[in-house]
TrEMBL record:
Belongs to the HMG-CoA reductase family. GO terms for biological process: coenzyme A metabolic process; isoprenoid biosynthetic process. This is hydroxymethylglutaryl-CoA reductase (NADPH). Keywords: NADP, Oxidoreductase. It comes from Vibrio thalassae. CDD domains: HMG-CoA_reductase_classI. PANTHER family: 3-HYDROXY-3-METHYLGLUTARYL-COENZYME A REDUCTASE. Gene3D superfamilies: 3-hydroxy-3-methylglutaryl-coenzyme A Reductase, Chain A, domain 2 (3.90.770.10), Hydroxymethylglutaryl-CoA reductase, class I/II, NAD/NADP-binding domain (3.30.70.420). GO terms for molecular function: hydroxymethylglutaryl-CoA reductase (NADPH) activity. Its EC number is 1.1.1.34. InterPro entries: HMG_CoA_Rdtase, HMG_CoA_Rdtase_cat_sf, HMG_CoA_Rdtase_CS, HMG_CoA_Rdtase_eu_arc, HMG_CoA_Rdtase_NAD(P)-bd_sf, HMG_CoA_Rdtase_sub-bd_dom_sf. The keyword Oxidoreductase applies. The keyword RNA-binding does not apply.
Length: 419
């Protein structure tokens, strides 16, 4: 037996020794006895419903932490963002900066709020931000925008699928009118068609203004979807509002060459002297690290090449009221680091999938709005700037973590700050 399987074998052997066959049956079989009193009767946020839930939960210490007096006074603010409300969760928030961004939309020095429980994370982004600012700031450019929803239709044959598509491509103007009737801000920008045998996938691409837009595009596409089903001359065997081609909340490779959300790139040229001062290493060594980890990423089958975009985006999304689950797709992207002919460091990041907004969703909740206000980026007309700040933040994190590995400081920093 290969050594790689020994742990799995031993684990199963230990289970077999600790649990008898009778206990296996008892533990894993369905249970049909009566449930405890239900905590959740109505999903709505009212004083009566909140009091009922805590009456069932019956945990005073937990209630004091989750439904403190400040939360209780503000709880109506959360009514459109959560069901079965029982309180709020406090997370530590730190700031990284100043982070200088020279973007098409973001201009200035930003203190970036990051909500996390991971020690050493904010310190790392702060170091990278200070290095970027000392180097004159990161250039950042919003490249494209678009949010997708992808209905899927199944037919009996390819012939039927082809007839359906032939009808469908004549309907774009009407589809656009229907979709845009559901929103004041969303615009249906394009519909592309993908045929796979007797299946047809439609990719509806929208511009969503300053909102992240997932709910907006779902509602708009649903109106068109219902219209298609009621009027198509070729009836599908079955159809669904989303056929999983959009990449919503999933790591996917298609947006590396296109866009979902906001596509942004950022770059920086850093003198070797500043690399030595802030990161205690050299541009050559950082470029070598990039080469080795690019091959390692390819060997592991990773989508995109970056060190840890997810750290920056998760902390920023939580702090600023974004949909944190979108980190699964937003953290796809490419980092490059090269030594220039002069011996300095060129570094860039490209993030094609930033699901980010400054209106709607959780952006107007009290704490989250406060974080956006710290950035000066809450409200209409600010989402493009927030996307450029997010890209520059990711660049700061890439510089800091790569520098830490190259200088041999990565483990030491976590040992010092996390313990």
């Amino acid at each position: 037996m290969p050594k790689i399987n020994l742990h799995k074998r031993d684990y199963l052997v230990n289970i077999d020794q600790d649990v008898t066959l009778t206990e296996f049956d008892s533990k894993l079989s369905p249970k049909y006895h009566a449930t405890a009193r239900k905590v959740n009767r109505s999903p709505y946020l009212t004083e009566k419903n909140v009091n009922y839930r805590w009456g069932v939960l019956n945990n005073i210490d937990a209630k004091l932490q989750l439904l403190d007096s400040h939360t209780h006074a503000q709880m109506e603010s959360y009514s459109k963002n959560i069901e079965f409300f029982i309180g709020t969760l406090k997370m530590p928030v730190g700031t990284a900066g100043p982070l200088r961004v020279n973007g098409l939309f973001a201009q200035g020095d930003y203190q970036v709020p990051l909500a996390t429980t991971e020690a050493a994370l904010v310190a790392s982004y702060n170091r990278g931000s200070n290095l970027i600012t000392a180097s004159g700031g990161a250039s950042a450019m919003l490249l494209n925008e678009g949010v997708t929803r992808t209905p899927g239709f199944a037919f009996k044959s390819l012939v039927q699928a082809g007839k359906f598509v032939a009808w469908l491509v004549t309907q774009f103007d009407h589809f656009k009118q229907l979709a845009e009737s559901t929103t004041d801000h969303g615009k249906l920008n394009d519909i592309s068609v993908n045929i796979e045998g007797n299946h047809v996938y439609l990719v509806f691409e929208y511009l969503t203004g300053d909102a992240s837009g997932q709910n907006m595009v779902t509602i708009a596409t649903n109106v068109v979807f219902d219209y298609i089903l009621s009027t198509t001359p070729v009836e599908p065997d079955y159809a669904f509002l989303d056929g999983n081609l959009s990449g919503d909340k999933k790591a996917n490779s298609q947006t590396l060459r296109s866009v979902r959300g906001k596509k942004v790139t950022a770059e920086i040229l850093i003198p070797a002297s500043l690399v030595a001062k802030y990161l205690h290493t050299t541009p050559k060594k950082m470029a070598q690290f990039g080469q080795m980890t690019t091959v390692g990423g390819a060997l592991s089958g990773t989508i995109g090449i970056n060190a840890h975009y997810a750290n920056a985006l998760a902390a920023l999304y939580i702090a600023c009221g974004q949909d944190a689950a979108c980190v699964a797709e937003s953290a796809i992207g490419m980092t490059r680091m090269e030594e220039t002919e002069e011996g300095d460091l060129y570094a860039s990041v490209t993030l094609p999938n930033l699901m980010i907004g400054t209106v709607g969703g959780g952006t107007s909740l009290p704490s989250q709005k406060a974080c956006l206000d710290l950035l000066g980026l809450h409200g209409s007309g600010k989402s493009q700037a927030l996307a450029e700040v997010a890209a520059a933040l990711c660049l700061a994190g890439e510089l800091s973590i790569v520098g830490a590995f190259c200088a041999g400081h990565f483990s030491n920093a976590h040992h010092k700050l996390a313990r």
